[in-house]
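Researcher: Here's a chain I'd like modeled. Treat it as a single chain, no partners, no ligands.
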Amino acid sequence: MKLENVQHLLPEMAQLIADLIGLPKALKLIESWGGTTFPISKNKRRDGQIRYEALAEVVGVDAANVMTRHFGGEVLSIPRCAVAMREVRDRMIRAEFDQETREHPAVYAVNQLARRYQMTERNVWMVLKKADQVSETRQEVLF
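Model: Modeled as a single isolated chain. Structure tokens:
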């Protein structure tokens, strides 16, 4: 289960970054620095070159160049994407529950999932009751 499946839940800034450098590299950036601010340098002075190198280490030189051209001189707030990450986790729990209950009772499966995901059994049951969050198309909105 990957964030590509829940891209519609990503904040605008995360979607913009993904449009610029691609979703896989955007996810690396979010995993590394999500929830922080990062000054995107213009890569002209030594301090800026150090920040550029740190960015290039995470997303690669080509993506760092794209981000420098687009955001150079700005302080970028890198989102945590908590809603999308939670949805990925919940989908994984539901899929693993389906797999686990082929061989074991539901109570056993929930106990194992609670331990694996470090959450209470009650919260696992709540996750199991929820449906996947899907994006609505214009046709669905009409009905």
